[in-house]
Design brief:
Elements: H1 17-29, E1 34-35, E2 46-53, E3 63-68, H2 73-83, H3 87-98, E4 99-102, E5 105-106, H4 109-113, H5 117-132, E6 135-142, E7 149-155, E8 161-162, E9 171-175, E10 181-185, H6 189-197, H7 204-215, E11 216-220, E12 226-228, H8 233-238, H9 241-254, E13 257-258, E14 263-266, E15 273-276, H10 280-283
Antiparallel strand pairs: 1-8, 2-3, 3-4, 4-5, 6-7, 8-13, 9-10, 10-11, 11-12, 14-15
Helix pairs in contact: 2-3, 3-5, 3-6, 6-7
Bound molecules: zinc ion.
Length: 287
C-alpha cells in the first residue's frame, strides 16, 4: 500500500511549496548535497538535469534544460529488439528513443554519450514518468526482515536527487597514498557504453580497471611531477588496491542524479527500515 511508505517529515512541494523550499534551503545550508523532493513539471516533459551538459570545457555555458517524450509502439519495438544486444544497447536505445533535446541541441548519439551518468539516469527517470506515470508498483514486495509480502508503491519524487554544485566539479582531485594525488573526471555515457559492452565477459575488477583507465586524467607524484595517464589500462592495473578504491568511491560519491540506493521505507508490520533498490528494469517493468 502506498501508505506503507515512511513519509514522516516529507512535505509535498505541490501542497506546501514554502515548507518544501525551506526544507531544501535548510539542507543546502548544512552543506548536504541531497535535497528532496525535486519539483517536476507534470505534463510537458521538460525538466532540469542535475549535472548539466557541457560542450568541451565550456563550463560557463552548461545547459540544464532537457525534454523527453512518451515512448510509443515503434520505440517499444526498437527497445525490445535492442535488449537482445545486452543492457548497454537497451539503455542507449531507451535514451535515444525518448530524449527530445538537451539545451538547444536535438538528441543524438554523440550528445547522449557525452552526458554524465547522473544526467542519463535523470533522462531515463523522466522518460519513465512521461510513459508510465509517477508511481512504481511492486504487486508482491517481500520484506527482507520479516518476509511478509505486500503491495508497495513509490512515487518518482520520493527518490532523492543529488545535484552537481558547479559544472566544473565533474573533474576533481583524489588523494592517493604516499603523497600522490589523482585528477579524475566523472564517467559519461561513452564510459558506461564501454563498460557495459564487456559486462558479460569481464570480471568486476576488469570492469573497474576499464573505468579507471578512462576516467583517470593524470597522477601527481609526491615530488610534484604530473603524468597524464588517460586510456592506460596498465597504469590502472598497477595502482594499489586502496588507491583504486578511493578513486571508485569518489566517482560514486560525486556522481549527481537520482540516488536509487537512498530510497528507504519503514515496514509497518515489523517496524524495521527497508532499503529499496530500484534499477532501470524496475523503471520500465513493461519492457
Ligand atoms: Zn517487515
Amino acid at each position: 500500500m502506498a501508505n506503507d511508505l515512511h513519509t514522516e517529515g516529507f512535505s509535498s512541494p505541490l501542497s506546501n511549496p514554502g515548507q518544501a523550499n525551506a526544507a531544501i534551503a535548510a539542507l543546502l545550508s548544512q552543506g548536504a548535497e541531497v535535497a528532496k523532493p525535486e519539483i517536476a513539471v507534470p505534463a510537458g516533459g521538460q525538466f532540469r538535469l542535475p549535472g548539466g551538459f557541457v560542450s568541451g570545457n565550456d563550463f560557463a555555458n552548461a545547459r540544464y534544460d532537457a525534454e523527453v517524450r512518451e515512448l510509443n509502439g515503434g520505440d517499444e519495438e526498437a527497445i525490445t529488439k535492442a535488449r537482445n544486444g545486452g543492457i548497454g544497447k537497451f539503455i542507449s536505445t531507451l535514451l535515444a528513443s525518448g530524449t527530445v533535446s538537451v539545451g538547444d541541441q536535438k538528441a543524438s548519439p554523440a550528445l547522449l554519450s557525452n552526458l554524465l551518468l547522473g544526467d542519463r539516469d535523470t533522462l531515463l527517470l523522466e522518460i519513465r514518468r512521461a510513459t508510465y506515470g509517477d508511481e512504481i508498483v511492486w504487486d508482491r514486495y517481500s520484506c527482507p526482515h520479516c518476509g511478509e509480502e505486500f503491495r508497495l508503491s513509490v512515487t518518482l519524487d520520493e527518490i532523492p536527487v543529488r545535484r552537481l554544485a558547479d559544472p566544473a566539479d565533474r573533474v576533481f582531485e583524489v588523494e592517493l597514498r604516499r603523497g600522490r594525488k589523482a585528477y579524475v573526471r566523472l564517467p559519461i555515457g561513452a564510459d558506461q557504453d564501454a563498460v557495459l559492452a564487456v559486462v558479460d565477459r569481464a570480471t568486476e575488477s576488469e570492469q573497474n580497471t576499464l573505468l579507471i583507465s578512462r576516467c583517470l586524467i593524470s597522477v601527481v607524484e609526491a615530488d610534484g611531477s604530473e603524468n597524464a595517464v588517460t586510456g592506460n589500462p596498465d597504469f590502472a592495473r598497477a595502482l594499489g588496491l586502496l588507491d583504486r578504491k578511493r578513486i571508485l568511491d569518489a566517482i560514486e560519491e560525486k556522481q549527481p542524479g537520482p540516488q536509487y540506493n537512498d530510497v528507504k521505507f519503514t515496514h509497518d508490520s515489523c517496524g524495521k527500515e527497508v532499503p529499496l533498490f530500484i534499477s532501470a528494469g524496475d523503471l520500465f517493468q513493461g519492457l
